[in-house]
């Protein structure tokens, strides 16, 4: 076994999920993530944690959903009981075919997601962490050779997370103290309120309310969004390509939209429910180990010099006690590059210009 | 997809497990059983049943057990809750390496099995069915080419189960009415009491208290075993080869034993607990579609012209209400050929001679 796989498992179990002896851990294993699952099992065994592996296969889900009549039991009790009692859920993605469920009708997928909203909720109430094992399919999606892609994944994942957490703490402080964010970039001029919201220093650990490995972003839950945003980073959403999605917001709600590519899937997302037309997340990428777009949200949204916004559900960690955030069955991220001429302001002060933070070398004062 | 995989899934879901709409189904997927799992998911989708897939990988279990210090939580609540609430558990074996966990110390494996006895119990309380997808590793273990092995598996599995159930009903009636069974064969002269026990017509369906696909046997839970038995069929037990195991019973308990090969694993089995030294099962193979030994208990024990005995746990289905059968954390089957010169008698009447039942052509009266 590549020693980096074991190191990945150690970072996941120790730094990210903070697994303790006796913890009840669900490990969700994608079709191509077997080797990482073996390394994670080894580390969980060393830790004295309990292990139950769920097989999280796109091909199985596709077959099930396509064969179904579209009527689903709401939150089957046995699955709910599993996730409600779990301490941690570690999701190991690693697709063997990123288009593996491309032919599942969107309404079928939506109905299934809606019927399982309680199970999703229970999973998100655990110390969950999502990570990804490098597969050839993911390398292909990135347009990269397999070995080069492995290097990319481990460069982004096996980082000095404590050092990054310290840098991110600066941005968190600015956002926590701020009331309004303005984003200006090519095709984008957007304002959002973040007045009472809490920014998350997403340092790839549940100890930071951060649930992705790799992470490397600071995110919050905006509201009252006004203006236009263009997402120039090409992405795959629910198995289909989207490019240059443009959203227009009034009073927090999407009132107009367009896309160069993938209009159908964006329409499906927007029509999921009421909350799908509002933003659930503003995220600011800070992982400089992610040095290119690889058509993979887990990595792309963390890239230093990008900003992402998610349609749908807000994370509880961004909300003060007693405040309800945006609710939805979906959470779909879209990304825009903060390139030359861009700026990110908080209450009128420039925090990032031309993709560089004001504490970084080269920032134009 | 090979149409026989879909047919296998239909037999499993419809005939064997009798899945109804809304049933909560756990599908346990072995490393090499992916294609069958996809077909089963499709059939469950058509049926309107609920699906949760568990990844049942030997390599994951091996890594976990080897890394552990040998102290395991007793029946972790989250896993217990899943199986206690499930209606059916479909186990799809299909190994990619039948020696995949051969280097796990026996005491580690035993401690793990003991700590999870309640989970096992909960699983056996569902409408569970075990079946197997043909893999190259299983073909190798059988000493067969892959394509020939696929044919073997489907010949044994895709049978006229209703017709076989009728034939087996004859033997069930004889055993239900009988008090004592005597087995005589090369190296074997054994008597067992079956006085108040119930024989199971194992026709590969939960409707017949039968939980294997393929099945094709009639089995019961003997006691008060006396005499000697030699298991001439070579087998793999817990990843290790055993051959010509000889057990001597007095008053139902193994008092002496020997083996040409695999003595260590037999000793481990026998020392698991008190019940591991008593018989939990007498099974009589009746599946004529299984026409050769393939070093695989699921098929070997069903072969027409063989008899198997299991050390350890008895199945509840064989016991009248209020009678406790043999209890153990293990259930290890061993097989003997009923060849020329052999006979199986019930209360002194010959039921099978030279491997042929008395209702079969060629039986010597």
Going by helix content, strand content and strand pairing, the class of chain A is alpha+beta
Count of DSSP strands of chain A: 19
Assembly level = homodimer
* Count of domains of chain A: 2
The outline of chain A comes out as globular
Descriptive overview:
Two copies of one chain form a homodimer. Helix content of chain A is 31%, strand content 29%. With 365 residues, chain A is α+β, with helices and mostly antiparallel strands. The first copy, chain A, is globular. The model of chain A has no long low-confidence stretch (mean pLDDT 96). At the A-B interface, β1, α2, β2, α3 and α4 of A face β1, α2, β2, α3 and α4 of B.
What structural keywords apply?
homodimer, 365 residues, alpha+beta, Thermophilic metalloprotease-like, 2 domains, 11 helices
Question: What's the structural blueprint in terms of helices and strands?
Answer:
Two copies of one chain form a homodimer.
Chain A: H1 3-16, E1 24-29, H2 34-47, E2 50-55, H3 58-67, H4 77-85, E3 88-93, H5 106-115, H6 117-124, E4 129-132, H7 136-142, H8 146-157, H9 161-177, E5 180-185, E6 188-193, E7 200-202, E8 212-213, E9 217-220, E10 223-231, E11 235-237, E12 240-250, E13 253-261, H10 263-270, E14 279-285, H11 297-300, E15 306-312, E16 331-337, E17 343-346, E18 349-353, E19 356-357
Parallel strand pairs in A: 1-2, 1-3, 3-4, 4-8
Antiparallel strand pairs in A: 5-6, 5-17, 6-10, 7-9, 9-14, 10-12, 11-12, 12-13, 14-15, 15-16, 17-18, 18-19
């Amino acid at each position: 076994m590549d020693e980096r796989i074991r190191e990945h498992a150690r970072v996941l179990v120790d730094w990210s999920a903070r697994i303790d002896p006796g913890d009840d851990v669900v490990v969700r294993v994608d079709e191509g993530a077997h080797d990482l699952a073996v390394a994670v099992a080894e580390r969980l065994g060393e830790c004295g944690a309990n292990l139950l592996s769920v097989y999280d296969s796109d091909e199985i889900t596709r077959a099930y959903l396509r064969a179904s009549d579209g009527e689903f039991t709401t939150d089957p009790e046995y699955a709910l009981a599993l996730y409600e009692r779990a301490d941690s859920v570690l999701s190991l993605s690693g697709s063997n075919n990123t288009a593996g469920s491309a032919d599942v009708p969107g309404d079928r997928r939506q109905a299934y997601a809606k019927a399982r909203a309680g199970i999703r909720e229970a999973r998100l109430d655990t110390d969950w962490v999502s990570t990804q094992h490098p597969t050839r399919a993911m390398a292909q999606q990135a347009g990269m050779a397999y070995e080069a892609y492995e290097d990319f994944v481990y460069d982004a994942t096996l980082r000095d997370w404590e050092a990054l957490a310290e840098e991110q703490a600066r941005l968190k402080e600015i956002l926590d103290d701020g009331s309004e964010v303005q984003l200006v970039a090519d095709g984008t001029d957007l304002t959002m309120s973040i007045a009472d919201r809490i920014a998350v220093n997403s340092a790839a650990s549940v100890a930071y309310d951060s649930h992705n490995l790799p992470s490397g972003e600071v995110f919050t839950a905006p509201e009252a969004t006004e203006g236009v945003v263009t997402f120039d980073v090409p992405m795959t959403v629910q198995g289909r390509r989207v490019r240059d999605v443009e959203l227009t917001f009034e009073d927090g709600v999407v009132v107009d939209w367009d896309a160069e590519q993938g209009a159908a899937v964006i329409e499906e997302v927007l029509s999921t429910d009421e909350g799908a037309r509002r933003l659930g997340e503003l995220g600011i990428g800070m992982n400089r180990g992610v040095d290119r777009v690889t058509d993979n949200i887990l990595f792309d949204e963390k890239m230093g010099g990008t900003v992402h916004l998610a349609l749908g559900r807000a994370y509880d960690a961004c909300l003060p006690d007693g405040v309800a955030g945006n609710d939805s069955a979906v959470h779909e991220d879209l990304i825009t590059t903060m390139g030359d001429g861009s700026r990110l302001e908080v209450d009128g002060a420039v925090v990032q210009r031309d993709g560089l933070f004001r504490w970084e070398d080269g920032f134009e004062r």
